[in-house]
Write a structure and sequence with these properties.
The structure holds two protein chains of two kinds.
Chain A lengths: L1 H17 L3 H30 L9 H13 L12 H32 L1 H14 L4 H12 L2 H26 L3 H10 L3 H30 L1 H8 L4 H10 L3 H35 L1
Chain B lengths: L1 H24 L1 H6 L2 H7 L6 E6 L6 H8 L2 H4 L4 E6 L3 H10 L8 E5 L1 H7 L12 E6 L6 E5 L12 H12 L5 E4 L5 H12 L9 E4 L2 H9 L5 E4 L3 H7 L3 E6 L10 E6 H6 L1 H19 L4 H9 L8 H8 L3 E2 L5 E2 L18 H13 L9 H8 L2 H11 L15 E2 L5 E2 L4 H7 L7
Parallel strand pairs in B: 1-2, 1-3, 6-7, 6-8
Antiparallel strand pairs in B: 3-10, 4-10, 5-8, 5-9, 11-12, 13-14
Classes of the chains: A mainly alpha, B alpha/beta.
Chain lengths: ~280, ~425
């Protein structure tokens, strides 16, 4: 819930920016932008100090910038093969994640509702879920490959199967935690199945579902390296693997920064949709 | 849809047989005709092929065939040469084929197309028929040893190394030897080298599979004592001060066969002219790679992000044949440097494939009664190589008379006679027959 409140203040901060109130903008800058900038600068200086000695095992940030400068300033170049700019690498990966994650959302919520509604299904499926959710993404790759006999659906399946578990589990917990009062109200009002689903179940479970969706989107982005190991070509996951192959530590660090930022943006997007959806249904 | 799919290969095979018969009959005629005529006669059925590679210097002919336009010159304008993350994924993508978003062919460890055709390394042991069209190189791999054993300065004789690891093992520490794929060439070299000095690679040391990129990092944290892999990892190990080069594998077996150029057999059957065009382009690229005048440009091509993506400085030395072993020993212009064309490097000798299958039997990867000859007749397409050589007008000195290079001699004096592989197996003390 605290994250939701934080998102709400974020939303307010965004609306402030539209007013020509410079004092407010300044306040936002000082309160919201300054702390992370200061911390990042301090960490950067610490890293630089720790790694600038001659025998350092990791490159300092100044060297990372020097090594990767061409990649940073030309995000859209294309030299053929998988030698393309970081923007293309990230877009290619985002496309794969979009497919895998969308499927996980649909299947995860459906299974979560089933497990949340039916005690028998819960008893049957829960142990299966608890075991399968611990399987690392990499282990799914050969299995999906043997099953699908095609590399593209296999990669998407790896993302799907990594992202689905928190969605199922959170949805089922949310459904099971619908207050008894709500169920009684539904009985009093004689809501039919469809009405119960849209008017009671989804709004009541939405905060849980969206926390599952947020964990899921983070995991699906994490699975990208495993998913792209096989298909190779263009993609940030294969870029990391390739940089590792060539022991280009600076490239890996740059990729980690991009992966982190994209993951952060994805998380914020799902959180924003979550706060928007839950408020919308509550008002409706 | 199934019907048309089933119908085409049959038709294609018939057409292929007719054409092959014609070409074989006219080989003498062909070689006297200009190149352009030969190309025009066999217009490729498709202009596309997807070929995989691992970022190693022995894949250079594939890079060069793209960069210098050899594929395009033979009408293969849409060849994609795609980086694979490990030998395991090369295998997986070959099993799929390009129609299911995999690859049609690859730069590959010579035993792998055999193990795939035999179903030994494929899912559910389902055979995936493969064809070896050419050898890509001779020599050029290295065995490295960690600095923990720096005072031994291990070279070819492993008897002192055997005592060192036995002592380490009795102290309760794990000892590991790493290679890149079970049954692959690196596995064969490191096992042969250890066994020759009395180390049983199954009992005295754990022989483990580690992808090439992890070799240096794993040795740094002390999780392995020795490994066998291609460049640039051995050189990088020295540059990082973690270990040294014990030997380059040509010193174990002079001019030993290494990587192969292999295609899925269904690709060759459906596109005989395209397969021939690919083969010719790769042979021309191999000749280009062999020429010392091209070595600097080749190292520059290799260093690009799209190909090996390693610093030029790490690549050029051993491409030019200058080996610094990291122990004070330096050999310039090494007699066992990597060969792409010289010494009949490109021709896929059947006798060499037989050694790999025999050595796979030695370590129990294949059963003892496995019919090696039958599989070689199916997988080895030296007939296509000869056809391509004739069409390219190759000097007859570079074309072997026989499919066998004859008796091979190893550094420890053991010999392998392709006429009698069993005698070779019997002559070896350490083995694990299945």
């Amino acid at each position: 819930m605290s994250s939701m409140q934080r998102s709400n203040t974020m939303a307010k901060a965004v609306s402030f920016r539209w007013a020509p109130d410079f004092a407010a903008i300044q306040q936002v800058l000082v309160q919201r932008v300054l702390p992370p900038v200061v911390i990042i600068a301090l960490l950067g200086i610490l890293w630089e100090l720790l790694c600038s000695s001659p025998g350092a095992v990791l490159p300092p940030p100044s060297q990372v910038l020097r090594d990767t400068w061409e990649l940073i300033v030309n995000p859209f170049y294309n030299h053929g093969g998988n030698d393309v700019g970081m923007a293309w690498q990230i877009l290619a990966s985002l496309e794969r994640v979009a497919y895998g994650y969308s499927l996980a959302v649909v299947a995860g919520i459906a299974l979560g509702v089933l497990v949340g509604q039916s005690t028998w299904a819960m008893r049957g499926l829960d142990p299966v879920f608890q075991v399968l959710r611990t399987v690392p993404p990499l282990a799914w790759l050969p299995i999906s490959l043997a099953g699908f006999q095609d590399s593209t659906p296999s990669a998407i399946f790896v993302i799907f199967i990594t992202a689905i578990w928190p969605i199922i589990i959170n949805t089922s917990v949310g459904i099971r935690n619908i207050p008894e009062d709500y169920r009684n109200v539904a009985r009093v009002l004689r809501l039919n199945g469809m009405e119960y689903f849209t008017r009671i179940m989804l709004p009541a479970a939405a905060p849980y579902i969206f926390s599952g969706l947020r964990i899921g989107v983070g995991l699906s982005w994490l699975a990208i390296v495993a998913a792209e190991m096989l298909i190779g070509g263009v993609g940030i996951g294969f870029f990391i693997w390739d940089a590792w192959n060539a022991s280009m530590i600076s490239d890996i660090i740059l990729a980690l920064v991009y992966v982190g930022i994209v993951g952060f943006v994805l998380d914020r997007m799902v959180a924003f949709i979550g706060s928007w959806v839950t408020r919308g249904t509550a008002q409706g | 849809m199934n019907k048309t799919n089933k119908g085409n290969p049959v038709l294609d095979r018939r057409r292929f047989l007719q054409q092959t018969a014609g070409v074989v009959g006219g080989t003498a005629l062909l070689s006297s005709l200009p190149l352009s005529w030969a190309v025009a006669s066999g217009r490729p059925e498709t202009t596309s092929a997807k070929l995989g590679f691992i970022a190693l210097t022995d894949a250079a002919p594939l890079f060069v065939a793209v960069e210098k336009g050899f594929f395009a010159a033979h009408g293969m304008t849409d060849v994609e040469v795609l980086k694979q993350s490990s030998w395991g994924t090369t295998r997986d993508n070959l099993v799929l084929g390009s129609q299911r978003n995999g690859i049609d062919g690859a730069h590959i460890l010579t035993p792998m197309p055999y193990l795939m055709s035999a179903g030994a390394i494929t899912p559910n042991n389902r055979p995936v028929p493969m064809s070896v069209l050419a050898r890509l190189n001779l020599n050029g791999q290295c065995i490295s040893v960690g600095n923990e054993h720096a005072d031994l300065k291990v070279r070819l004789d492993t008897s002192e190394f055997a005592e060192a690891i036995a002592a380490k093992r009795s102290g309760g520490d794990a000892v590991n030897a790493a290679m890149t794929f079970p049954g692959g060439t690196h596995d064969m070299w490191i096992r042969y080298w250890m066994a020759a000095g009395g180390i049983d690679p199954n009992r005295d040391i754990s022989t483990i599979t580690v992808p090439p990129p992890q070799m240096v990092a794993n040795m740094r944290v002390g999780s392995m004592d020795t490994f066998c892999v291609c460049e640039p990892w051995n050189h990088q190990l020295i540059n990082q001060g973690i270990g040294y080069t014990a030997n380059t594998t040509g010193e174990i077996w002079n001019d030993h066969p290494e990587k192969a150029f292999a295609l899925r057999s269904d690709y060759v059957e459906a596109n005989p002219n395209a397969a021939m065009a690919l083969l010719k382009a790769i042979m021309e690229a191999q000749m280009w790679c062999e020429d010392p005048a091209n070595h600097e440009e080749m190292a520059q091509i290799c260093s690009r992000r799209r190909w090996i993506h390693a610093p030029y400085a790490d690549l050029i030395d051993r491409i030019q044949g200058n080996f610094d072993y990291g122990t004070g020993l330096v050999i310039e212009d090494h007699p066992q440097m990597m060969r792409y064309w010289k010494n009949q490097a490109s021709y896929p000798f059947k006798s060499h494939d037989l050694w790999f299958l025999t050595e796979n039997k030695r370590w129990g990867y294949l059963p003892q009664d496995f019919d090696s000859q039958a599989l070689i007749e199916q997988v080895n397409r030296e007939d296509l190589w000869r056809e391509a050589a004739a069409a390219l007008g190759i000097d007859s000195a570079d074309i072997p008379d026989s499919t066998s290079r004859g008796v091979e001699t190893f550094f420890d004096g053991k010999t392998f006679d392709p006429e009698d592989p069993q005698a070779y197996l019997d002559s070896l003390e350490i083995k694990r027959l299945a």
